[in-house]
Amino acid sequence: MINEELEDEAKKYLGDFLGETLDFLKMLVHKGADAEDRPFFVEELLPEIREAWEEFREEFNVENAQKLVNETPGSVLQSYGLYGSQLRLKLSAISSWRERFLGKRTKKLLLRLLDAIDTLLDSLMQAAEIDKAIKEIKDILRNSIDED
Fold it and tell me: Which of 14, 61, 71, 106 has the largest count of CB atoms under 10 Å?
């Protein structure tokens, strides 16, 4: 059984994760370029990417998502590994990949970071029943990264 302290910690960390993920995706959409200032995304998709991002931001209710996280029972968070050491490991992996990416700004590190975010986001969406639009926008951004 998850204790109240771990439950409160998990909910705070998960709420922070949502906000940080949205901030990162916004930065990626508007300033997504490698260390040599080459855009990460397929160039002809950039206008649609930015338009889709703005639409998503208008429609996605982050406060509601955070409310859903806060209302999720600790036992449910526990069943998805979203508490204690398991959650801290997932968040540490994301933080590590983010720092590496921000330092070198390579496509390889960006893809690793997006995959790490995806792992936690998948569990969080299922556990808290958050609007899946956040995963969809993250997925299409990942799939819009130019391979050249």
Answer: 14
Nearest in space to 131 (alpha carbons), one of 12, 13, 18: 18
End-to-end CA, the chain: 49
Between CA 71 and CA 21 the distance in angstroms is 20
Model confidence at 129: pLDDT above 80: yes
Dump pLDDT digits (tens) for 39-60: 999 999 999 999 999 999 999 9
Question: In the block, which residue shows the tokens 């994760």?
Answer: 17
Q: What's the whole-number mean pLDDT along residues 103-109?
A: 95
pLDDT at 53: 97
The answer to whether 62 and 18 are in contact (CB under 8 A) is yes
In this structure, what is the dihedral angle of CA atoms 117, 122, 124, 130, given to the nearest 10 degrees?
Answer: 110
How many CB atoms lie under 10 A from the CB of residue 100? 16
The confidence band for 1, taking pLDDT boundaries of 50, 70 and 90, is low
- Nearest one of 109, 92, 94, 97 to 32, comparing CA atoms: 109
| Distance in angstroms (rounded) separating the CA atoms of residues 112 and 61 | 27
